[in-house]
Amino acid sequence: MFTMTQVKDIRKLYFEEGRSISEVARITGHDRETVRKHLERDNWNEKIPTVTQPNQFPKLEPFKKVIDKWLLEDRRAKRKQRHTALRVYDRLVEIHGEEFTCSYRTVAGYVASRKTEIYSKSKSASLPLEHIPGEAQVDFGESDFYLDGELFTGHHLNLSFPHSNQGYVQLFKGENQQCLFEGLIAIFNHIGGVPTRLWFDNPSTIVSKVLKDGGRNLTDSFPRFMEHYRFEVAFCNVASGHEKGNVEVKVGYHRRNLLVPVPRIQALNTFNQNLLYKCDKDGLREHYRKDGAIRELNEADLKALLPLPTVELDVATYSTVRTNGYGRFYLNRGLHEYSASPKYANSRVLVRITAHEVTPLDDSHREIIRHKRLYGDTKQSSMLWEPYLDLLSRNPGALKYSSIYEILPGSLQEFLGRCGKSERGKVLKAIAGLTKASSLESAIKTVDVALAYDAFDTESLANLHRRVHSPEIELPPLSLGDRIPKLAPLTTSLAAYDISLTGGGEDLC
What is the torsional sign of CA 360, 365, 369, 372? Predict the structure, then answer.
């Protein structure tokens, strides 16, 4: 199993240093066909993982320290004289005899995992000193915005071309790896290509460690992202953000000119698309130092761009989680709670995580439910009720005996308790439909009104929901036009009626 660092080293020897396939094979110790396969690869999507039971090799626990010692000492030995899994197994049997009862497969699994950790190293590039067309700088800035009326302390991703001073920006709730990758991809797609080199400081989203010799250990996802889009990377020296001063200035410029006043947003994806077009329009202004407009200078940047890959890269993170008895799971150090489905209570579930969404998947990688991703370091919960109400509607007789009933809102519990047994399943199905069409809060408002009217049938629920949540239509005043005659004003005097009634009939008194 090759690490991305090993693959990147192979490609660097061939594409950057001009080595032949035979030379690369000799230097790396891999056969020519393996080297050729990694040189010709153009799809860097990873296979979506499947849920597997955790295997921590518990029987091997008493021997792990000595195995680790041997493997760490091997770093000073030539590759062909390092411990294989079989040699580790044989040595343990020789030393411990009958006391060692672990199988060779257990030893091989642990050795493979530890070797991956020990030898997974990444190299960094040096920072270029001149701004040539096609190279760009990247940085995040902090900015507030309202989304659906809720205030977020968000982050805007900035990419700028120092040659032309053309910049682009995307707004996110956070500045994690998914935000970085998705923001860059959106900008790449908008400008129709990929910058030849991207300059960064040392963000933890892509740099796991800055080494003493100036090198960097990169997170495994970033080399994969680099290889898929084929750009080079350059890192600033530590605490030297001025080395990418163009984007540092652009962070403040974008905030002042594109994010003031504080944006009030209904759909963040739509807002980000419009931001890119506003950035294009911003390129019409004159360059602050060079002759000509920014857009004209940016033409040289666009001509130098690398072509977009033909295969889309999936930059989501996949994580296996354990659900509780209610079918809910936790992310972000247990602070953020999400619902999956009661069907998946007390089980292991694969979760797909993007910049904006958290989606638990079933065993066939199909979506169970889709949440908006929570952000912040406070306890928060996202509860989507559709799977729960749908399950209850199919088993209404078990309603009060299920754990789900305990977590339903109080007014909904009262409403279901007052429904007839024969109607309960239909009512639950109707409430599930109302929840899916609008939200649980809207459905609960309808239930509250239904309780006040003692209405417990599905038809009444649907009518009340329309009445509660449909906006009132205010008709404009009707214009009669000039062809309609104007009426004389009405009199309030009753004298005319008195005259007409005089002598109008016999007095019957």
Answer: positive
